[in-house]
Target: Cysteine dioxygenase
Amino acid sequence: MPTCTTEPMLPVKTMQDLVSSLNEAMGNSGLGEDLRTVRQVKQLMHSYVSQSDDWVQHAIYHEGSRYTRNLVDDGNGKYNLLILVWGEGQSSPIHDHAGSHCMMKLLAGELDEQLYAWPRDGALELRRTAPLRTNSVAYMHDKIGLHRIGNPSLTTRAVSLHLYSPPYNMCKTFDESTGAAVQSTCTAQKLTSLMASSQNYACSPGFTADPTMALPQGPAITST
Model:
């Protein structure tokens, strides 16, 4: 388990500083169940001030996509750090995070987060909507509920940095009116990168069902 230090952290001036500090904070354990580490990682995400020169090489976008997912660092398999590029007016489905911690920092543009309660009988209950602006940080976990992220601008793309611990490649998405769930399998496609191990995350053409969850198949999506 990583040790949560009370000593002042080194300044996080660049994306590489942030990656190094995250690796040091989480060690070989990822976020796990230690809330002190969760708070420390959130503080690190806050402390980095977005500079496009740091991340533009990862901000790969495919015209016509809902959004793209680009790997910045794989965290030795205990977490991963991705940059997502959101097209104008595009949004994710309502989704869970497969039991993982999700930390999100907005690097450019604006996004809206809609938080939902887990479905019980029928339609999902919208609990709140929160705007996210450049350099703001949000935290999400299945214990909190479900959410949907969207770019409200019809003229400007948005770029966000996401930390998932542990990494996952399957999640559930939900129909807002019925609460019905489908399961998505995401695959990785390597991209040319200026930093090692950069990949683009995109969804497979369809769903691969997990027989233990007995979920129906649905159209392909990309999840955050």
About this structure: The mean pLDDT is 80. Residues 53-203 form a domain with the Jelly Rolls fold (CATH 2.60.120.10). The first strand starts at residue 67 and ends at 73.
